[in-house]
Amino acid sequence: MPNSSSLNEFLLLAFADTRELQLLHFSLFLGIYLAALLGNGLIITAVACDHHLHTPMYFFLLNLSLLDFAFISTTVPKSMSNSLRDTRTISYSGCAAQVFLVVFLLGGEYSLLTVMAYDRYVAICRPLHYGTLMGSRACVRMAAAAWLSGFLNGLVHTANTFSIPLCQGNTVDQFFCEIPQILKLSCSESYLWEVGLLVVSASLAFGCFVFIVLSYVQIFTAVLRIPSEQGRNKAFSMCLPHLAVVSLFLSTSFFAYLKPPSLSSPALDLVVTVLYTVVPPAVNPLIYSMRNKELKDALRKVISWTLFSSGNIAISLHR
């Protein structure tokens, strides 16, 4: 059996064996990927260009879209490329880079969702102190802390995972490189150190989960005390998109890694992994813009400006 020093590539899990199904997988992933790029790209452009959206809530939303943009670009293009070229391979360095980016971006997104819960808590439960607690410097520091925590998390886990001797082949039972699948290839008890680090990370993630839950308990308590129905509806419209994104992120992630072994099967594992890695980056822009008039108006301006500019370019080229 090969050891880690002689490995120069890994074999990823294929979605299909027949050429027709491989092309179908490529087409489906291409559609989802383009939708994610378009949705997140529009939100990034709208928030950056519209001064009405230069507030803490939209600043964090811009960061979330950047993370989603990067995350779906880490896993989906390689899977599409492999299906199109009828191959399963990924280089050793490519696999290590994928592990780092997946852990980095997932950790950063979870940290950012926690910060966004705090932002909603301050806006609704402590509105008189919002300007002080959520000033521009404070927002930049919190966003930077979210990115940095994800980066350090990815760096530690990647370095530790790929320092473990691997001698159980090079087949990864997933469509991208992830730590649990690579640990299955280890041939010594040194993988227990990485398991310990995963437990520590899971404990920190659980702490963030408790913080989000407690924040929303206080938020809903405060919202229900608002006397006017219009005020309650406005408060709910501020919080429900974030709560929906958090619920989608956590429910799919928890089911992927905490489901009973009796429910585990290669096909189900693949479907669940797609749900938590591919679907959220494509759906999040839709969730945030669905009931947000300010964001809808900004997106319309961006789309109108884009169409107008494209029309002018087309006319110039025609002349």
TrEMBL record:
Principal cellular location given in the protein's record: membrane
Membrane topology qualifier: Multi-pass membrane protein
SUPFAM superfamilies xrefs: Family A G protein-coupled receptor-like
Keyword terms of this UniProt record: Cell membrane, G-protein coupled receptor, Membrane, Olfaction, Receptor, Sensory transduction, Transducer, Transmembrane, Transmembrane helix
Pfam family, one: 7tm_4
Transmembrane regions listed in the UniProt entry: 23-45, 57-76, 96-118, 138-156, 195-223, 235-258, 270-290
Localization terms from the record: Cell membrane
G-protein coupled receptors family 1 profile domain segment(s): 39-288
Family listed: Belongs to the G-protein coupled receptor 1 family.
Annotated protein name in UniProt: Olfactory receptor
Gene: LOC136996004
